[in-house]
Amino acid sequence: MKIDLHCHTVASDGVLNPQELILRAENMQIDYLAITDHDTTAAIMPARELASRVKIINGVEISTTWQGFDIHIVGLGFDLTDQSLQNALKVQRETRNWRAQEISDRLCKRGLDPVYQDAAVLANGGTITRAHIAQVLIDRGVENSFVKVFNKYMTRGNPGYVPSPWMSIKQAVELLHLSGGVAVLAHPLSYQLSNKWLRRLVNDFAQDGGDGIEIGMPQLKRDHQRWLVTLAQEHQLLASVGSDFHKPMPWRELGRYLALPDNILPIWHQILPDIELQH
């Protein structure tokens, strides 16, 4: 059984539309796929209508603020029609668009041409993310990689950095629980926290009612995975798996390199009660 509980479409910062994503997932023989676009669920119903083999799980990736850091919470298995959740996600999307304009304005003050309109074209009606802005700068030859754009322009202390008034982790967890879903701490090693601060993040997430943590991820070293398993077990958190797929690339593919160790309980028994507890 192949499960991937974290991927993106053109509804946020992915490059594939729902039809293309479903075709790829079925070619990869995925059994269960959660589409987790940033602060939007717009791609889920179109994908579900197109899917034949793969089963689509309701998902979303919610941006939150914790101790001055942007922390992402993946929601799974919630009710798509829950109005409180959808209203909160709408506010998040409006905040993203405000942030994109603010980033553009700040970059202009440093001598770069405006990026907002070109980023909006790339978003094609979806939410404008920092990835769209980064792609505009790459396309213009300002830098040649996402890493360089983010490190030079959009991280803390740089000209395009804009702190965002996201909801708290606790608010995100409560919204997901009230809508019938579960909350997962996404890609915990991507926030560049020390072990001490990562332990603090996981502890606070658990104290706020979080359910799971991503442990099955591409390019994750075994010692790092063991560390995440230890943190999960210390706080009675379940394990999730996710490629965080945005576009086709050799090292990040739907359903690939997402194995969990045998000593951790997977989260999908909470959202997929009809399948066996296996991974």
Task: Walk me through this protein's architecture.
There is one protein chain. The protein is an alpha/beta fold and 279 residues long. It has a domain at 90-154: DNA polymerase, domain 1, CATH 1.10.150. It is 40% helix and 15% strand. It contains 10 helices and 8 strands. Strands 1, 2, 3, 4, 5, 6, 7 and 8 form an 8-stranded mixed β-sheet that branches. The longest helix has 27 residues, at 83-109. The model has no long low-confidence stretch (mean pLDDT 94).
Report mean pLDDT, rounded to a whole number: 94
Tertiary shape: globular
Strand tally is 8
Assign the structural class, choosing from mainly alpha, mainly beta, alpha/beta, alpha+beta, or little secondary structure: alpha/beta
Any low-confidence stretches, pLDDT <50, length ≥5? none
Using the coordinates above, name the CATH class of one domain.
Mainly Alpha
The end-to-end span amounts to 7 Å
Biggest sheet features: 8 strands, mixed
Quote the beta fraction.
5-15%
CATH architecture of one domain: Orthogonal Bundle
According to CATH, what is the topology of one domain?
Answer: DNA polymerase, domain 1
Q: Into which percent range does the helicity of residues fall? A: 25-40%
Protein name: Polymerase/histidinol phosphatase N-terminal domain-containing protein
InterPro entries: PHP_dom, PHP_domain, Pol/His_phosphatase_N, Pol/histidinol_Pase-like
GO molecular function: 5'-3' DNA exonuclease activity; 5'-3' RNA exonuclease activity
Pfam families: PHP (PF02811)
